[in-house]
Structure prediction request, 830 residues.
Amino acid sequence: MGLYILRRIYQALVVFFVVTAIVFSILHISGDPLALLMPPDAPPSDVEDMRRTLGLDKPLIVQYGLFLKSAAQGNLGVSYHHGQPALKLVLERLPASLELVITTMVISLVLAMPIGVWAASRRGTFVDRASLLGSLIGISAPPFWIGIAFILIFSVELRWLPSSGRGTWAHLVLPATSLALYRLALFIRLIRAGMLDIMTMDFIRTARSKGVSEQKVIYKHALKNTLIPFVTIAGMQMGSLLAGAIVTEKVFAWPGMGRLFLESIGVMDFPVIIAWALVTATIFLTVNLAVDIVYVWLDPRIRHEK
Amino acid sequence: MKKISYFGFVLVFLFLGWSIPPTGLAAEKPLVVGFEGDAATLDPHARNETTTTTIQRHTYEQLISLDANLKIQPDLAESWKLIDDNTWEFKLRKGVKFHNGEPFNAAVAKYSLERCKTHPKSQYKYMVPDYKEIVAVDEYTLRYVTKTPTPELLIMLESVSMVPPKYFTDTEYGKLATTMVGTGPYKFVEWVKYDHITLVRNENWHRSPKPDFEKVILRPIPENATRVAALITGEIDACWGVSIPDIPRVEKNKNTYVSRCPSQRVIYVMFDLHSEKGGPAPNAQPGLPAGKPNPFKDIRVRKAIAHAINADDIIKFVMEGSAYPASQMVSSYATGFNPAIKRPKYDLALAKKLLAEAGYPNGFEANIDTPNDRYINDQQVTEAIGAQLAKIGLRLKVVATPKAVFFPKVDRYESPFFLAGWGTLSWQGTMNGFFREKKGSYGRTNRGRFSDPELGKKMDVANSIMDDAKREKLRDEISAKIYATYYVIPLYYQENVFGFSRRIKNAKARVDERLFAHELKKAE
Prediction:
């Protein structure tokens, strides 16, 4: 296991390097950040001054070399717009993003498991069809629209919950629920399909024939096996949510990483975008590693393979 | 059993969500103001952008400020006079202290001006006129000696914040850029980035009346619909930028109202006057069919377009009445506004005649570029222009891109015809930016490469005459010549629409898009 994690860390370094190279070249061919950084009425001489200050007057390859050098020392550069270290700006957003993502995942997992199992065990009944239809809506509705609709219903009309911002639990409910809707729908469908598949397998029939209670067949034997492919998808969802529930964070004025990324793209704040990309890559690599470890725990065959 | 515990957990979770009251029950409810974005930094000499500046100005002050009608008024400078064409003398306000106790005096003013001019992160360098020297004559007298006569010096200095030298030299930059220590109406309490800034009233403010609201919270809410929802629910008391479709909602709600006024931001279209023909950049114009000559070099074509764009219809139908016709690039609030310049009349017959004379009786093909995330309804307005110009035979392809793509593109001169916006109080800045060749401090927004060296010389004279009447006369003459070239066609001024709750009495939107908590009065 230790060796395995070590190998993963080595792979991570390669990923980091590739990510910086890709992001760096995409950004620098996409245009001149000075066009948006300096106020429209600033004279060209001031613009060129700022270009020199930021080191953007040097050839691209030199800029990349300098970036790698300071990145190796843990310095990802200073945001053009905020004048603050880019990595610090991104990491400052991480707690808000984590809070939102964990709540979202808890809501969707807690609801999806029983509903998915329930629908599968009553295949073809009203409950099953209702869950399918509901999840279809959940998957299809755009998050932007759901967010605005939630605000109109629960904040403006019913006055139950605040419309935006971060602070109390109440502030968390609307953004987390609107993000959870899609995941909930996706997870219900995955669990239902997985359960239906597993329930026809030999070991389920064996368990039933030796007299194991239906409850135990479903939860101990079937659900646990369904979870193996499910964990991968859930992990990926968690990663992408952390990187940025971009639209939802904007709609609910949630101070997370997604909003920072969106605003940085809009003004071409290169150091922040690169720092964001690296933090995101780290999150995905970590989640993948966690998923692999959970796999080993869920599936004894992997443990005994070696 | 398991199922029960699951649903039990869900119920508890939902109950938690409902049981916490959405708003606190504090004794004195703070004033909450919603902005479109957060401050980029709190260093007042760094990022130069409306939201950032507006937020900083609750704490930081300048020698001079602008009232709601953008007229110059004394602030930390009580009075000023010209000693000779290059020397300005300012008498500073006595007894003013920064929030950390440092005194404000001429040495502080000198330090602040010099820091603003020389700090590497400063985006305000051009707002500090080039100086031979700045002298603190005595504790409350400051002399500013410019390199060349600068009639617009006062408006320029309006942008330069006064900062406490001791705090600024002793504090590391990370802290400096995330806190504020000024002389202004509000003291800085905390900044939770991207969420809120908290301020409390400065009881020792040198101006009166003191602000009505004791505690102020500034919140960034980027989504227009959310910001308006927060206003309607009472989560915020004032907000910047109510979008056009939301205006009726705010007005219909009994606890809120809107205030509207023309902005100084003008929306215009501009032509490429430089490229000879269409083709790949940089030697030809990529927005025109390859090999075909550039029709916009012909003044008759530009004049035809000016007469074929129906700005009134655009204001009425695309902007839903939320805009005001414009005849020039500065607004009537600015110096150098020439009231004699009128908009070209909408006249299709004349436009067709002019096009035929220019050799395009059946029109021509070209691209028209526009940003789609910068100005209100920018893309829709450009599409309307495309449709209007189709009536005189122009076949325009509307190329709409995000601002991050659009501005670098027009800066590379790769658009033959485009729509953009402009807002400043400075005639000089407008002229030097739009109508001079790109060189030194000139020509940043001359994206169609207009060139008239004769006129340029006249501008230099007009920018350095200290006698008001003489200067205005020359400026009017230059403006009339400029707009007769139809190089730029100003269309309309945007509108600033601010929303307020009834907790605030008779609040008015400001022309300069700023929203100040200390200008808001309590109702009752």
Chain A touches chain B through 66 residues (CB under 8 Å). Chain A is about 80% helix and 0% strand. The radius of gyration of chain A is 24 Å. The CA atoms of residues 69 and 75 of chain A lie 9 Å apart.
